[in-house]
Amino acid sequence: VLEATLAELVEADFADVRIEQIAARAGVAPSTVYRRWGDLQGIINDLSSELTVSIDLQDTGDLELDLRVVARAVVALRQIPAHRAWLDAMVAEAVRSPQARQTLATAIERRREITAEIVHRAVARGEVPADTDAHEVIRLTVAPLYLRMYITNEPLDGKVADRAAAVAADAARHGLLRLSGAE
Amino acid sequence: VLEATLAELVEADFADVRIEQIAARAGVAPSTVYRRWGDLQGIINDLSSELTVSIDLQDTGDLELDLRVVARAVVALRQIPAHRAWLDAMVAEAVRSPQARQTLATAIERRREITAEIVHRAVARGEVPADTDAHEVIRLTVAPLYLRMYITNEPLDGKVADRAAAVAADAARHGLLRLSGAE
């Protein structure tokens, strides 16, 4: 059912995807889908968990190199039609639906909690201040990528990803991303 | 007609806005609207120009303080229902329509060309390297704000804006935002 939902999302807008089509594609009865997931948002929630656990973190011993892996993963995920369709649908739907907004925010935060480990290790190594805001480091690493994807519609590549990682690592090292704020 | 379009966008989704409703609200004949703008996208294009010229740049003599004005303007615009409605509609529509994508990209780039002046002044003062990528400095200043608006759905405030400005100014000063790339 999750695969069928992704396939539907690749082909149609979120608003046009129907449980009946998903059930037919998955070869199950619509009532089975309704019973287990309730509605499309329920399926998307499950899908979000599936799609967000797949980041292969590395421990290079250097914050910037570790963050490159995170930034490049965002770029790489963009090349996977199913993931791109899911994210496009979520972003468009989040503008109008508080529920979609919540699903998207939760998916992104779950992923950020995993990647924040990179910053905790940099703190342990003494590479960045102890009160560095790990989530803010990750936000800054991915922000230029999402800006290009959804606002400025500019191309994404490894160079853009690496630059974002370099900027975030530098800002963290200089104490600009502390929990207490920028001051 | 532009005001009527904004008012409609505040009340309805982009996909549900009709030229007939806009014309009725503006007190003109639909044919007048079709003749002058062609379609909704044509009106939105004009609207985009109107909405993007209103940034009041300052020359504080300091890159970080100048960028704060830019970042805070993005946050302030978010508080204006008409502007928020326009941007929300554009972002949602850009996911599915190449034409909307182009309109949004052009509007954002036009604004960035105006604000890039801030960076040119910093270059002239010798505050940042001569080959600093002015557009990249502006992108980095606004990226964390758009991330919170459309991806992570986290609150925006002056502190978030000021931190974004501090990070972008710092990265520019350290030569991380040169035209030649991050290396």
Largest sheet of chain A: none
Chain pair forming the biggest interface: A-B, 41 and 41 residues
Structural class designation of chain A: mainly alpha
Percent helix of chain A, as a range, is over 70%
Given as residue ranges, the uncertain stretches of chain A (5+ residues, pLDDT < 50) are none
What oligomeric state is this? homodimer
Radius of gyration of chain A from CA coordinates:
18 Å
Q: How many β-strand stretches of chain A?
A: 0
Give a quick set of tags describing it:
homodimer, 183 residues, mainly alpha, 10 helices, 72% helix, elongated
Question: Concise description?
Answer:
Two copies of one chain form a homodimer. Chain A is an all-alpha fold and 183 residues long.
Written account of the structure:
The structure is a homodimer of 183-residue chains. The longest helix of chain A has 18 residues, at 98-115. The mean pLDDT of chain A is 87. In chain A, 72% of the residues lie in helices and 0% in strands. Chain A is built from ten helices and no strands. The first copy, chain A, is elongated, with a radius of gyration of 18 Å. At the A-B interface, helix 6, helix 7, helix 9 and helix 10 of A face helix 6, helix 7, helix 9 and helix 10 of B.
